[in-house]
Each structure stands twice: as C-alpha cells, then as structure tokens.
Amino acid sequence: MKMHITSAAAGLLLLAGIGAAAAQDVVIAPEQETVIKEYVHKQPLASVKVPGVELNIGSTVPDTVELHEVPNVKYRYVVVDNRTVIVDPGTRKIVKVIE
What is the pLDDT of residue 23? Predict the structure, then answer.
C-alpha cells in the first residue's frame, strides 16, 4: 500500500509539473514574430520604465503600462528599457522579449 501511495503522489507531481510548464511555454510562430518585428520597427514607441518588473517570460506587466496592438496578432507590445516586450493582453504576462 505504501508503494501505491508513493506512485500516485509521484504521478500527480509529474502532471502538475507538465501543466505548469505548458502554461508558461507560449510559442509565437516565426511568421508572427516577423510581423511583430516589422510592425514595431515601422511604429516605434518611446521606451518606458517599469520599476520592479523584471523583463522575463512569465512576468506580469502592470495595468498602468499601455499595451499597443499589432494588427492581426493576438499579442500586444510595449517598449521597456529599450527592449520590445510581447505581452498576452488577457493575462498581461510577458510571452517574449525581443532584443
């Protein structure tokens, strides 16, 4: 019985880990990334400072930061510390940082 409980616990941990990894892994198709880069290049924004926010995938951008639309792309962007940050508008989480 002890072995059975341990196996079940290990299985739950494995499933939880897979779910967490899947939630953080947002894949932007190369075509979409090209569209975003070209649009951002043609529509430059002034860089903003966002104290206390690390520019890492999964970090949340505060509501006080205005996100800008890219036509025909579900993500939004903002330029923070001279780096283009792609954000999921529903969660405001950073999905990609473009150098």
Answer: 44
